[in-house]
Amino acid sequence: MKHFLDYVVRSLVDNPDDVDISETAKDGETVYRVSLHPEDVGLVIGKGGRTISAIRSLINTANKTGDHLAVEIVENA
Fold this sequence. Notes:
The model has no long low-confidence stretch (mean pLDDT 90). The protein has one domain (2-75): K homology (KH) domain (GMP Synthetase, Chain A, domain 3, 2-Layer Sandwich). The chain has helices spanning 2-12, 41-45, 50-62, and strands at residues 20-26, 29-36, 68-75. With 77 residues, the protein is an alpha+beta fold. A hairpin with a 2-residue loop joins strand 1 and strand 2. The chain is 38% helix and 30% strand. The longest helix has 13 residues, at 50-62. Strands 1-2-3 form a 3-stranded mixed beta sheet.
């Protein structure tokens, strides 16, 4: 799932080399923290949060493990 998320996010941003995704799992929940270049945060979030909402929907639809998956956006300094 991490590779799929990485592919989708890198396809959207202007600085794909600055994308870093970390994965944390506990208590039936997996959290993906996506670190981005500051200029790319708006591209991934989208107008009114539509793009990140669509990404989250794709991730949860493709989920076969039954765990709850969360995606968080983190801006690199």
